[in-house]
Amino acid sequence: MIHVENLSKSFGSKRVLQDVSFTAEPGRVTGFVGPNGAGKSTVLKIIAGLVRPDAGTVSVNGKDFSQALLPGKTMGLFLSAEWLPEQATAAGIIDYVCRTQGLPVSWGRDTLETVGLAGVAQHRVRTFSLGMRQRLGIATATVSRPDVLVMDEPINGLDPDGIAWIRSFLSSAASQGATVLLSSHHMAELAETADDIVMIGGGRILGQGSIGDFVSHPDETGYYLESPDPENLLVAMAQRGFRATRERGGILVHHTNPTELASVALESGAGISHLSRVTRSLEDTYFAVLARSASGGRE
Question: For 156-190, how does the pLDDT look when each residue is reduced to its tens digit (9 = 90+)?
Fold first, then answer.
């Protein structure tokens, strides 16, 4: 588990975080989203102990990460593949990580196999594509089989097969009880992978919750319905104060629930032949939250 409480941080006169709080739960993938400059990277670095907050606390599995007796087993961290030395081989890097963390060298070989780099283990990093470097960086973060995974944009540079692999890998890690905190701009992939969403903007938390709750904001809940007598039903809805509009061959209704819709349809005699809930995509929700924040609204 990662518990972040009331983090604040400034660099000089620039405030980058203010009262940031959220929890990433074990057995779940938590998507961490926000625009460039929102404070995501600073939060991840504070979690990893690379940056000190001005205020607030972070605990990893109930403790300050700096107090972990086995830091590699406690948390695997992937912030960037840029640190990988160009002249080293994939096998050399993963063997070094295993030796410094007291892990069996066989774990390194198994991990290279897992990330799809076993066939190029003796190749130097300078010959690797961005996607291959991403895979190697992920290997170094996961070779110790940590309880917590923190990853920043791990699918950058990956081909479709690589994206499918990382999605499966992270979901599998969570299903085995790991805490996964995943920062990404790829909303479609997060929608396929994440169980929970935390959204940050301007150094503040703008919204959080399960992905189902996050995309079903009460101000945006709507239903699409079809009726044998749509005109009569539209009149009845207007009289009840519902916001309803014609949509294709049916009616789109906002700010209501199925019980209220059924009541109006029964009272008016119009009836309902089809009813379905209208849901937003994660990307739609992301931009809607940003727009509300820019206009001074709250999620």
Answer: 888 888 888 888 889 999 999 999 999 988 888 88
Sequence-distant (≥ 6) Cβ neighbours of residue 56 within 8 angstroms? 4, 5, 6, 7, 8, 19, 20, 21
- 116, containing H or E segment: none
Query: Residue 60: CB partners within 8 Å, gap ≥ 6?
Result: 1, 2, 47, 68, 74, 75, 148
Greatest alpha-carbon span in the chain: 77
CATH class name, domain 222-278:
alpha beta
Q: How far apart are CA 113 and CA 288, in angstroms?
A: 41
Question: Which residue, chain included where needed, has tokens 């849901």?
Answer: 279
- pLDDT tens digits along 6-54: 999 999 999 999 999 999 999 999 999 999 889 999 999 999 999 999 9
Find, among 167, 181, 220, 175, the residue nearest to 75 by Cα: 181
Q: Does residue 233 contact residue 283 with C-beta atoms inside 8 Å?
A: no
- The correct CATH number of 2-212 out of 1.20.210.10, 3.40.50.300, 1.10.540.10, 3.50.50.60 is 3.40.50.300
Burial-class residue 122 by CB neighbours within 10 Å (0-12, 13-18, 19+).
exposed
Does residue 56 contact residue 20 with C-beta atoms inside 8 Å? yes
Please, are residues 270 and 232 in contact by the beta-carbon 8 Å criterion? yes
Q: Which residues contact 62 (CB under 8 A, 6 or more apart)?
A: 1
Q: In 3D, which of 205, 183, 207, 204 has the Cα closest to residue 194? A: 183
Instruction: Map out the domains of the chain as residue ranges.
Output: 2-212, 222-278
pTM: predicted TM-score of the whole model, two decimal places: 0.78
